[in-house]
Amino acid sequence: MFKRILTLAFLIISSIGFSQKFINSFHMQINSNNLVFDVKNDSTQTTTLFNADNNRILSIKLNEDKQIIDSLSTKLITEKYSIIGSNYNKNTNILYCKDEKSGDLFAISFDFLNKKTTHINIPLNIEKDNNIYNFSQNDKFYMLYTIKGTNNLKINSIDFKGNITSHIIDISNFKLLNYYNNPTTLYKSIGSFYGTFAIKNFTVIDSKSNISLIEASSKTKLYIKENQLIFTFDISKSVTQILNVNLKDFTANVNHIATPLIGASLESITEMESNSFLIDDKLFQFKITSELEIITIKTLDGQLIKTYILKPEKETTENSNSYYIISPTEKETEVLKNSKDFLERSSKIGYGSGIYCTKINDTYQINFGAVSDLQHSSAITMLPVFGVIGALTMLVSEKTSSKNISIYKKRYAVFASLNIDNQLQTFSNQKSDFKVSEIEEYISKTKKISNFTISKFGEKQILGFYDENTKMYNFTEFEN
Questions:
Q1: How far apart are CA 13 and CA 438, in angstroms?
Q2: By mean pLDDT, which of 203-212, 236-245, 380-389, 427-436 is the weakest?
Q3: 3-state secondary structure (DSSP) of residue 424
Q4: What is the pLDDT of residues 148-204, one digit of tens each?
Q5: Whole-angstrom Cα distance, residue 68 to residue 49?
Q6: Can you tell me the distance from the alpha carbon of 265 to that of 161, in angstroms, rounded to the nearest whole number?
Q7: CB–CB of 456/9 below 8 Å?
């Protein structure tokens, strides 16, 4: 199962029908330069809350009701470090860390069964190659790299004892294509996960979290499944390229699926945006111009299942309330006049167009449109934890809910929604219901709270936060 550290995850949660209830609190000293985050153990339905500074890491094991089961603490063996990932089994949590001075990797094991912590030196320097993403699955921690000037994907897998197995997967024979259908490299296609460029061009799709047009507009997406990596590349104007990597035998293959065809004459003279989204082994592809939009649904071998076409209607129709725009300073959506207005604005917004799907009961909801870059702000924030020296940093990326309008703050977004039945045969218009996240409202209206975490147990969303006045760490439940 795919696991990763959740930070500032309150932005994930929708506000539909939430009610809040205090659960528990306990005393914990958190200084301004500390990092607080949690890791949920799906197998035991417990959560480990970490409180890290530049000298020590405290781990607190909590049950589903956020009551303390146990705690362990360890002193650090290096002055400057960053946490790059985590893993767990039934009784143990492991944090994987990078020594910022040497670039070497080490791990810290928190063994709650035997009441001990262990520092594990891992013979790996992660400065040499381009580390694009890290994740845990089953009992292994995976580190993914691209290598400059090559078509190689490098995968390091690390077990609980710190043993490393390295694999190089060369996809040169499969020929990745750029926008003009000329050969390009895997390194150029993905870029660097930690760079501003990558926010537009590389996104990891987490099946447990809702996404938005921000992630959907990325041209390269990574889907992590059981023993499988699936990269989708929408960097070519003609095809969606799908790279499958098998994590059992570390083999790979690439499949090309043609993008929707708007028409040769129109495509030659019109600026176009195309993108795709993968769900339930079905590829939802999307192509848009100022004059026409096409959505196709295909199997992974390219067989067409269904097509939806949106043409520019100049008059207001019964479907006009399906098209919306969000402005950077507004807290509500504005209904657009008609599909012509939607198409024109989508093609001019200037950042990227995208499509994403969610499955609710037996219906797929398809959301599509375009989103701008951040207005008067940076696209990514690196959060320094230990003051100026930045000894411990965590990547803070925008995570969303399809119902949370707050994620589009400081952006323009133009979007529309469709439904299609489970058999993928009948389309129907869907009115989007966007609201301000109640959890975010709660945070904004409550003074002197910080160091947020969130856990999800069934339908319950549990917000954790530090009260700077009482010095207590509190948990409040929001339930749908």
A1: 9
A2: 380-389
A3: coil
A4: 888 999 999 999 999 999 999 999 988 899 888 899 999 988 854 333 333 347 889
A5: 10
A6: 60
A7: no
